[in-house]
Amino acid sequence: MVLTSVVNALAFPRPPRQASADELREHPGLLWLTTTDGSTIPAVHVKPRNPKRQRRYCVLYSHGNAEDIGECVSPLVYAGNEDTHLPTSLAQLMADTLDAEVVAYEFEGYSLSSAAAPSEAGLYRSALAAYEKALQLARAEDIVPFGRSLGSAPAVHMAANAPTPCAALLLQSPLMSGAQAILGPAVATAVPCADVFKNYSKIGDVRCRVAIAHGTADEVVGFSNGKALHRRCADAHEPLWCPGRGHNNMDEKAVLRYFHGVLDYVEANQT
After folding, report:
1. Quick one: how far is CA 242 from the chain centroid?
2. pLDDT for position 14
3. Choice among 157, 214, 230, 247 that is catalytic
């Protein structure tokens, strides 16, 4: 359908295939994963620099669209936001702030992956490959999917379908669905067969604590998406609504400190 093609085209404005490729190739934690269709995707494994603070959790990071994991390992400006200069790479900042090891993985069709083009099914295959890698590093109940923007789709899918409930699900600027984020709820409701990344239909199946951070002035994935998803969670943590923040100027340190508190809560209540 034409509408489906439009949604897919808008959902995958991926960066050039060589974006941040040098940083990625040279990263000491570079891994290669194989998806169920035989495609290879890169991933990076990062640990906290203070091993005494490391918790048992393994965070699986799903990046947003128009990004790749090369940007996650590069100590440069993140997400094209010139006001957010990180002191280190995003992946390392995650590991250090969350006190957990992090696996940031690529999607089929992005960056150095062998697949020719991205797709919704390819994102889910990539998430499964990353989940299987995480099972080599941590117990199933200690895995923490973390999705930003488009990455919320594979993160929600992962948490909703995990045989063993994950420790927590962390979502930053998540979407209700592709059509709802891009075209609005009225169009998405009128033509449901054209919709993709239907987080709204899966979030209720997630059997762990769900934490959402969203900017109230998000111009890409409207704030209403985060609020609506929060209402559908079976076990929702108090959300972090960031006044005046848009899609690409979130305070990453503040968001990660919030998620650190979520993991504190989970750790204190986990049996």
Report:
1. 18
2. 55
3. 247
DSSP 89: -
Tens of pLDDT, residue by residue over 192-210, are: 666 889 999 999 999 999 9
**Element spanning 226, H or E:** helix 223-232
| 149 has catalytic annotation | yes
What average pLDDT does the chain have?
88
β-pairing, 209-215 vs 40-46, is unpaired
For 159-189, b/e burial (b = at least 16 CB within 10 A) is bbebeebbbbbbbbbbbbbbbbbbbebebbe
Given 3-state DSSP classes, what are the helix, strand and coil percentages for the chain, each rounded to the nearest 5?
40, 15, 40
d(CA 205, CA 232): 10
Task: Please confirm, yes or no, whether 201 is among the known catalytic residues.
Answer: no
Q: Which of 68, 99, 195, 218 is catalytic?
A: 218
Residues 97, 124: Cα–Cα separation, whole Å: 27
Residue 191's CATH number: 3.40.50.1820
Please identify which of the residues 62, 74, 113, 149 carries the catalytic annotation. Answer: 149
Could you tell me the pTM of the whole model? 0.90
What SS3 state is found at 139?
Answer: coil
Task: Let me know: does 258 contact 240? Beta carbons within 8 Å.
Answer: yes
- Give the phi and the psi of residue 176 in degrees, each rounded to 5: -70, -45
Q: How many domains is the chain built from?
A: 1
- Judge whether 183 and 139 are in contact, CB under 8 Å: no
20 given a catalytic annotation: no
Range of the domain at 249: 2-8+19-269
